[in-house]
Request: fold
Amino acid sequence: MIRAVITGTGSALPARRVSNAELAEQVDTSDEWIVERTGIRFRHLAGEGETTGTLATDAARAALEAAGRVPDDIDLIVLATATPDQTFPATATKVQAMLGATDCVAFDVAAVCSGFLYAVQVADSMLRTGVHRRALVIGAETFSRILDWNDRTTCVLFGDGAGAIVLEGQESEAEGGRGILATRLHSDGRYNDLLYVDGGPSTTGTVGKLRMKGREVFRHAVTNLSAVMTESLGIAGLAADDVDWVVPHQANARILDATARKLGLAPDKVVVTVDRHANTSAASVPLALDVAVRDGRVKPGDIVVLEAMGGGFTWGAAVLRY
Ligand code: ACO
Reply:
């Protein structure tokens, strides 16, 4: 049986880091309000020359180095983003060109904040067929470019960045073998109006700005995330007690706390980076995973749950033995 194993992680952030206090100089908000409601203290914002594609490429290079691989080893690039460099072609193909990975399949996946979970399931399925052997799975975003900087209810919540993993198909017969054990995705298109961008090539011909009814999104997030985590653990034949680490989408510290509480998970098993990165949409899960791998928390053999929810709504979880 082939299993998809993470052999390296990487991440990249724009050079410019912006504190809540700096934001409050331009937006009618305060450090106190943002920290209390969201847990966010800093976000990185892309500057000139920094794009979803360049951040994704930097994260991919770091993941390749950690995996001991070179671009030519890669035969699949799946990139999750809602903020591509161009309407087309896919940003994944730009990353492919920038890496110099000449012989591989590269495409984007769009599921907003859940995008990385969707990309993981797509890559996992393609690797398990044996047709593809080594994938780069990337989440990368520059949400700062679709924020309405006059809307304090949304612009304080997001940041830019990228995270990447190298995912390799490996033969694994062993019961305790490493790899992705279960994935589960959901979508419900009825909730478009709660979280969306008010533009697009086929409607307004503009890029548009992010719009959100935050309070309603919050309510759905906790319910959907705890349900899909329980569901994916069940598919893997595991229970909440077996989990070493949860690496959640970093939207809001209160969503992370409420979801962990609902599952009976100790808060110290939840990797939190929302304080320093804010919500980086599809980048947030691989960014947080890279932080926890590099600081030594997530170790080979650990049971790790990845989870996310975002616009659509879309939501999903993956269970893996790291
Ligand atoms: N600074 C200061 N005051 C603000 C700000 C701000 N940045 N934004 C809103 N306020 C004010 C509002 O105007 C309102 O004032 P009023 O009572 O005088 O009308 C007050 O704060 C309360 O506003 P609410 O929107 O009710 O605040 P709430 O407690 O719901 O927190 C928040 C808002 C943080 C957006 C919360 O609803 C949330 O986190 N929702 C989840 C949204 C999310 O994370 N989405 C990301 C994508 S989906 C996902 O990733 C899961």
Summary: Residues 29, 33, 37-38, 113, 152-153, 156-157, 195, 212, 214-215, 217-218, 221, 249, 251-252, 255, 279, 309-310 surround acetyl coenzyme *A (CB under 6 Å).
